[in-house]
Description:
By secondary structure, the protein is α/β, with parallel strands linked by helices. The chain is 34% helix and 16% strand. This is dihydrouracil dehydrogenase (NAD(+)).
Amino acid sequence: MTRLTTRIGNLTLKNPVICGAGEQTMTAEAIRAALHSGAGAVVAKSTNESQAAKAQLDKTDYVLLDSHWRRLPWNFAPPADAHLFGRSGLVQRDFDQWLEELAGLDREARMLDSYVVPSLILSDLEQCAEFARRIEQAGLRVLELNIGAPHGEEAAKGAIVLERGAARIETIVRRIREATRLPLWIKLTGQSEDVVGLAQAARRGGADSVVMMGRFMGFLPDLDTGLPLLGTSAAIGGAWALPLTARWLMLTRKAMADDYPLIATNGARNGLDVARFLLAGACATEMTSAVFTGGYEVLSRAVEELDAYVASRDSSVEALLGSAADRVESYQQQADRPGWWQGFAPKPTGSPE
């Protein structure tokens, strides 16, 4: 055990830095690179049975934008305030081949005290349950089910499912829980007015953890062409999302009222952001866009930065978990305290000095 060791239910990770699913985990070479960066786990790019979802990968397009919505070069050195705007699809692999490859990679991950995590995106529930059963049979040790993919309402009907209903989420998770005994992580959308309620529903269905939260869908006109940037709506991510994700983590931790494990995603760009999510209640953080745009060194630097932060507090990940979330106050609790602005109000026009 070290100061960075963290637990997600019955699963122990050597550190809370996880490489999330995406183009940066689409091949065996990419997954190996992420593993050798020192990440506690690597989530493989998602799959399901839908040919339409796989075909969508051929229409993938991305653009990196600065804080003024201007294009940035894709040079793997993005500024901290860069936004990733894009659309994608699912991995174009036969399921049996994909599964065999991931099982082999997870055996390699054991040697590095890490995990390779297969990710399923829901299309047909019964087929998803069958895939979950086969993933366990193949010897993999964790499963992530993504029911919060932002592209769900843009892709071909049935290709990718985006779930916002608590009752439906509980039903989905319960069915997958029946199909497998693996630790089950459920990735939720942020495009909901009640992310806490979705997390509670996933827990009732049998989820071992929830990942919150998926990116948002956006639309951006291109001033140079007068046309939609990329020609479509697209998912948007960036550092700006960190306080939104952190708030849902804090609220979910409070609502759960115990140590139910939460995994953060959407907004972390470095190890200090992982620390921010840790303080907000996340026992681990999936870094995705930052790795895709900055390279696998983002992961190794994040581990080093987080370790330096935890060491500077003479503490551990376990001790710091949720410590800021547990001290948050309401506006009413702050009502009797003097505001910073007192004494700085502007004088009325024409008032004497």
